[in-house]
Write a structure and sequence with these properties.
alpha+beta; four-stranded mixed beta sheet
């Protein structure tokens, strides 16, 4: 009896290509005590993930930027992959998140490891916000 060895697949492995840039946005309000307490934790997690374009957006100060997107719970996060300036961002997550560093870290890491599919149920208003944020930087 002869044993046969498995024949390696001749198809080259396709590595997942990371996005050109990933947005990590916290939508908050200055008056929100939870947001103020969350800010250092958010910044700490963001600093551990190179390549993130991190934004902290006060939805009242930046109402024109936020547009018609409804933010009812703080903090609300928007995470999107942006291939280039002309492409529509792929929204990976949009919604409130418990204000714990470990929760945010797990979310970011799960998106790094997962597929590049868009989150379900994302409205056009949220996609438009992600596109505006892709080219926005806060004024000092």
């Amino acid at each position: 009896m002869t044993a046969s060895l498995p024949v390696p697949d001749a198809t080259p492995a396709v590595a997942a290509t990371p996005p050109a840039r990933r947005l990590l946005v916290c939508l908050c309000a200055e008056w929100c005590g939870t947001c103020r307490e969350y800010r250092p934790l958010f910044d700490e997690v963001a600093a551990r993930h190179a390549g993130l374009h991190v934004l902290w957006v006060d939805i009242e100060d930046e109402a024109d930027l936020v547009g018609d997107v409804e933010v009812e719970t703080f903090p609300t996060l928007l995470i999107a992959d942006v291939a280039d300036a002309s492409a529509t961002p792929r929204v990976r997550f949009f919604g409130p998140l418990t204000p714990h560093a470990q929760t945010l870290a797990r979310l970011v890491e799960s998106l790094d490891a997962g597929t590049a599919s868009e989150a379900a149920g994302i409205s056009q208003d949220v996609r438009d916000l992600a596109a505006r944020l892709a080219g926005w930087s806060p004024s000092a």
